[in-house]
Amino acid sequence: KKIARVNFCSIDKQGEKCAEYVEKEINAEIRGTLANKKEKPTGKCIICGKPAKEVVYIGRSY
Q1: Which residues have C-beta within 8 Å of that of residue 54, sequence separation ≥ 6?
Q2: N or C, which end of the chain is more exposed by having fewer CB within 10 Å?
Q3: Which CATH class, in words, describes the domain spanning 3-59?
Q4: What is the pLDDT of residues 14-43, one digit of tens each?
């Protein structure tokens, strides 16, 4: 099982379209963020290109 650590625009309502893209086009799910540590994103959202506000982990379920 592989997990990708990526910059993401938002895990709130603002990021819903990007999350839908991950699910439908990449066939993966956003697994969440680190629970014990707030990671600081550097750069832009990998989907929409807006400034990233979160670092999320994306993976497929088997």
Answers
A1: 7, 8, 9, 10, 11, 15, 33, 41
A2: C
A3: alpha beta
A4: 999 999 999 999 999 999 999 888 899 999
